[in-house]
Structure formats: structure tokens, C-alpha cells
Design goal:
The protein is built from three helices and eight strands; from the N terminus they run E-H-E-E-E-H-E-H-E-E-E. The chain has 142 residues and is α+β, with helices and mostly antiparallel strands. Bound molecules: cobalt (II) ion. Cobalt (II) ion (CO) binds next to strand 1 and strand 5.
Length: 142
């Protein structure tokens, strides 16, 4: 089956790459010491169960995620897999259109509807089973 291309939700852009960590302060110190980069924002996103920092890297960001507790999605991720790469976030122009496209394409979604992410952006997650075991976040920037 040939699927419609993604043109209707363009432009696509790598918005951020996220890592899950146990100690946000220590990780930010390491980033500053090793690479000389500092976070632009830092906030608690209760809906996601995390405290997160966004560190600008070129035209994109490194997102550093620390769970607020072990009973959160990122907390469970850390217990199962340890620290490291958590997800890749793709910016789309129209998140609702992107989700409709993915549903039509048969992709397994974590979120069938947009929810609130950090920075006031609208986000939704695509299940890792849809793409090579990799958790993908879609971001509509506001
Ligand atoms: Co993210």
C-alpha cells in the first residue's frame, strides 16, 4: 500500500532529542563542563511526570528528563533500561493532521489526541512499535 506523503503537516524538523536521567542538576553540570552548553528553560511538567531542561544545541535541543517519581513513565523507563536516550521529537506544523495521517497509516500511537507538553507546546507520542523500537514525539510549537 502506498501511503499519502507527510506533506500536509510540513515542515518537519528535528525539535529535540531527549535523554532520561536520575539527577538533572548533575547532568546539566556535566553538559556545561564537557560541552559548554546551558539550559534555556527548566520546568516541572506535572502532566508528563518530569522535571525537564531544554539545552539548545545548534538548531535543535537536547531535552534532559528527570522523573518526579518511580511511578511515572520516565521513572519506569529508568528502572527498566537505565539512563540514556529516551525519545526523538519531530516538529510538525499541524499535530492533529499528523495524528490523523498516522492513524490512517496504521501506526500504533501512545496518544491519539494532543496533550500539553513543556513550553506550552502541543505534543503526542507514537509507540516505539511503529518505528524500530524508537519512541517518537510529535511537537506542534506554540
Ligand atoms: Co520530548
Amino acid at each position: 500500500m502506498v501511503l499519502a506523503r507527510f506533506d500536509h503537516v510540513l515542515p518537519l524538523n528535528l525539535h529535540h532529542t531527549a535523554i532520561a536521567v536520575r539527577d538533572l542538576d548533575a547532568t546539566l553540570r556535566s553538559l556545561a563542563g564537557l560541552f559548554g552548553v546551558e539550559p534555556l528553560t527548566r520546568e516541572v511538567v506535572a502532566e508528563q511526570g518530569v522535571e525537564e531542561a531544554m539545552v539548545p544545541l545548534g538548531g535543535s535541543y537536547l531535552q534532559v528528563l528527570m522523573p518526579l517519581g518511580s511511578d511515572t513513565a520516565v521513572g519506569r523507563f529508568l528502572e527498566r533500561r537505565g539512563e540514556g536516550l529516551h525519545h526523538v521529537a519531530i516538529q510538525v506544523a499541524d499535530l492533529d493532521a499528523a495524528l490523523a495521517h498516522l492513524v490512517a497509516a496504521g501506526a500504533e500511537l501512545v496518544d491519539r489526541e494532543a496533550r500539553a507538553g513543556g513550553g506550552g507546546h502541543r505534543i503526542a507520542f507514537v509507540h516505539p512499535r511503529a518505528l524500530a523500537g524508537t519512541l517518537i514525539e510529535l511537537v506542534e510549537v506554540h
